[in-house]
Amino acid sequence: MDRFPFPDDLIRAQQQWHDTYRALAAPRPRRATELRRRLLALSVRIQWHPFWATAAGRAPAARVELRQRTAADRTRVAA
User: Fold this and answer.
1) What are the pLDDT digits (tens) for 6-63?
2) Contact 46, 17 (CB under 8 A)
3) Which of 12, 15, 20, 5 lies closest to 52, judged by CA?
4) Above 60 in pLDDT, residue 77?
5) 3-class secondary-structure state, position 49
6) What is the 8-class DSSP label of residue 1?
7) Cβ pair 10, 57 in contact under 8 A
8) I need a surface site. Which of 56, 57, 72, 79 has the fewest CB within 10 A?
9) d(CA 58, CA 70)
C-alpha cells in the first residue's frame, strides 16, 4: 500500500529524472549537454510541484518515498 497519494505527473517526472540520470552516468554519454539540461529542468519541475504544498507533501518522508518508489519501478522494468 502506498503511503502518499502522488499525482501521476509527479511520478512520471521522477521516473524521467531517473532515466536521464542513468543516461548521463553512462561512460561518455552522447548529448551530455542536452541530458544535463533535461536533468536540471526535471529537477525544477519535481522540486516546485504543487503536491509538495499539500499536507501529505509536507512530510519529509514523502520525497524519500517518491524516489524509492520510482527507482524500484525502473529496476523492475530493467530486470
Assistant:
1) 999 999 999 999 999 999 999 999 999 999 999 999 999 999 999 999 999 999 999 9
2) yes
3) 5
4) no
5) coil
6) -
7) no
8) 79
9) 19
Q: How far is CA 60 from CA 7, 9, 30, 37, in A?
A: 17, 19, 35, 26
Mean pLDDT in residue range 65-74: 85
Grid coordinates of 11: 511520478
Q: Is the pLDDT of residue 79 over 50?
A: no
Which residues lie closer than 8 Å to 17 by C-beta, 6 or more apart? 39, 42, 43, 46, 70
Query: Would you state the torsion angle of the CA atoms of residues 9, 49, 64, 66, taken in this order, to the nearest 10 degrees?
Result: -10
> In the numeric block, which cell numbers belong to residue 31?
548529448
Give the pLDDT score at 22: 94
Question: CB-based contacts of 30: which residues, under 8 Å, 6+ apart?
Answer: none
